[in-house]
């Protein structure tokens, strides 16, 4: 939402006359700055603690743990970038130059895609562990997981290139639509499908009920969706605004423009909350370990994802043996 500020647009670009100020709403700006400040103070140390817990204290690293590690790296880096937006909202102008504007948005979008894709991989991994424990899930070795994660980072680096290329008004609208479809609608369609199949399988097998991994990942999925939904809604409002500006009366375009302008600072700040919420979520999920494990409580929580996978596989084997005996 900084990109439309005239100070960020190059001389070759013709700005939309309706977009002469990136932060017109004082109330929205103040709330946005406050939220960005809070997520910076909580998100950076929180995600660093998650990374430290996994690398220094976690002895058994399951697939879920490796994905959480990469998610914490993406979230922590995104939280560090929030300092730029805090300064922007405080000063009401971008003081870091056009090149830095491109770089910051490129990094933000890269980490946005990384977060949602890693969460999608978590859901697919749980699907394979629950529904196909003896076939497809056995193929998921540590080597395969590392290659998939590396491929995911390469993919998000490529997908974020439009942040550097599309700088005119039409390009920006294309990018908004692309972000929403590729970074929200498609991943969440995969996630919802995965959890529908998981829940169906859980109802069929008694021994697979009430495992912490499913609950933890489902909580991550729900929180990410809730906090990012307003951002993508604003994106689509801006896309619709561009369509109405050419095909309908100017009053409709102005109305959509006013709605987007008055809400985008808060919507962007809410999206950042999702990246600092995960460490808080892990803390609540692992609070039963705090008394006995101290600062290693989070590592103990993540190690549980390994033992749960083994428990499911062992239980399935026992069930198969009992079936054969009868």
From TrEMBL:
Cell location: Cell membrane
Name any Gene Ontology BP term.
positive regulation of cytosolic calcium ion concentration
Q: Which InterPro entries match?
A: Formyl_rcpt-rel (IPR000826), GPCR_Rhodpsn (IPR000276), GPCR_Rhodpsn_7TM (IPR017452), Leukotriene_B4_rcpt (IPR003981)
Q: Which organism is it from?
A: Oreochromis niloticus (Nile tilapia)
Locate the transmembrane regions by residue number.
30-55, 67-91, 111-132, 144-164, 176-196, 216-234
Alphabetically ordered keywords of this record: Cell membrane, G-protein coupled receptor, Glycoprotein, Membrane, Phosphoprotein, Receptor, Transducer, Transmembrane, Transmembrane helix
Specify the superkingdom. Answer: Eukaryota
- Record's keyword annotation contains Ribosomal protein: no
Under which name does UniProt file this protein? Leukotriene B4 receptor 2b
Q: Which GO terms describe its molecular function?
A: complement receptor activity; leukotriene receptor activity
Taking the first listed entry, what is the main subcellular location of this protein, grouped into a coarse class? membrane
Q: How does it sit in the membrane?
A: Multi-pass membrane protein
Keyword Cell membrane listed? The answer is yes
One Pfam family matching this protein: 7tm_1
Question: Domain named G-protein coupled receptors family 1 profile: which ranges?
Answer: 46-282
Gene Ontology cellular-component terms listed: plasma membrane
Q: Hey, which family's this protein in?
A: Belongs to the chemokine-like receptor (CMKLR) family.
